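Re-run with default settings, no changes from the original entry. Doing this only to confirm the output is reproducible before filing.
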Amino acid sequence: MAVPMVLRQIWAFRNTLYIIIPPILLLPIPIIINSTEASCGYAILLMAIYWITEAIPLAATAFLPLIIFPLSGVMTASAVSAAYFTDTAWLFVGGLIIAVSVEVTGLHKRIALRVLLFVGAKPRCLMFGFMMTTYFLSMWISNTATTAMMLPIVEAVFRELKAGEEKRANEDTNVSMYLILQNENKNEKESQIADFNDVIFIPDDIETEEQRNKRMDNLIKGITLCVPYAASIGGTATVTGTGPNLVLSGQFATLFPDATMKLSFGSWIAYALPGSVCMLILAYIWLSLYFLGFNLREIVGCFRGSDVTEGERNARNVIVTEYKKLGDITWKEVTVLSLFTTTALLWFFRDPGFMPGWSILFEEDYVDDGTVAMTMAFLLFVLPSERPSFLHSVSTMESDELLRPVAPILDWKTVHHKFPWAVMLLITGGFAMAKGATESGFSEWLGDQLIFLGGIETWAICLIVTIVVCLFTECSSNVATASIFVPILAQLAQSLEVHPLYLMLPPVLAASLAFMLPVATPPNALAFSYGHLKVMDLIKAGWMLNVLGVLVISVFINTYGVSYFGLNEFPAWAALPKTSGTTAAPTFNMTSTV
């Protein structure tokens, strides 16, 4: 049945309708109610619709607070502008500039190839090596950049594995063939077959071409999918690892300015790293069993390194060749590695929580993670990309070479080209939205509307919102999803007098667990673009990882999270304005959640 022309025309202009219709339908809210809370709610709903439908580019949607808040009297233009560039925003900027330096110098590729050489070229070892390397790199640099770098290596290694398997299959076929002479003399025929079998061993379990093709098809699907999945998991381990983490860190500081605790780099990695490692191990076990099956002999052989096939030797040779192409480690790689390591240590030990950090050397709240990030980013535009001339032996140099200037590791043209400006605007737009919700009183109003959930067990609310966000993020930007849900969950926590992090942290971590669809996250889309995968492959492999992810997040927040962050108490700094005068902070019982 043909689709009517009118419907086809409407579908063709659906993005235009998404842009025009929502602001008109929502307009009665600020007109009829006529309050700053209503105006703020109008802006938040409009941003949520645009972010979900992506009718307008996500970064452009982040401009709306700059337009609506001043015009509707929610915030002044200067106040809403300041909300865009908080310390968390500069942490994001500095962290990404450092990540760009790692990518530009090729340090990430050297690390990746070195790890793959260490683990070996057997399929299960390769999958483990690809996942471990991708996981580690995505903790520090963009998940998309990490995936884009790893997938070509996956392709090259798989081609050699496949070629080796085909060659071995041909040899097995030749060995398994036996000569049957069509003779009238039956005894002569049986004798010749017996003689042949005395010389050549004929295995009973020869793999057919169909079986081999299916096995190799599963192998390429498995090692292709393990890369984007590990990238998504690795991004949850550090506050700079992925956008949703920065959304929570920034909005937490905006929504709770009086909080005695902050989501610093050190506190985040101390909490999130164990859970992400647990998730990585479970993901590896599931993917290896799903795509490679359970073979005890093969698993043992992976650790013993025995029975290496020609395809595996060729695959290792590819990795060796790629590593040799990099040459000796360069001056700029050593410089970036040193600066990168120093940055991570400074972030972690600024305020680690279990001991006094180096920030006590300065005035309280004067130095933050953003200060460290921007200091190190600044040095990348100063430090030389080559060994300075004055460090060379004068006897081996011409006099004019002593005056030759050395270019810095980074220049602004490179940073401008590689920096994800759209993601930054999307994150900072969420900061402005959260600030407007607080200033306008919308947060307090929303909290009053959510008070009816007080009759439900706290652990059940946490589990439900985690599942909802985990499913929601499959069809929406991870950063946009976090930006929408974080303010709502903050007000829900205040209304129920639950520690805000108890309801905010699990869903934000779940926002990165987008495993089931190609459009869920750029790493998935990159893996899908290579042509080895179908949508059903992602759904079948990803649904279990979503389940495992939600379980791991729920277990950790109700055990380690309660202990580490003190989530069993409702802090006074999180109380709504109408209850801020109370002298004692109420508590809620967590025993049923453990």
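The chain is about 70% helix and 0% strand. Confidence is low (pLDDT under 50) at residues 175-186, 192-204, 579-594.
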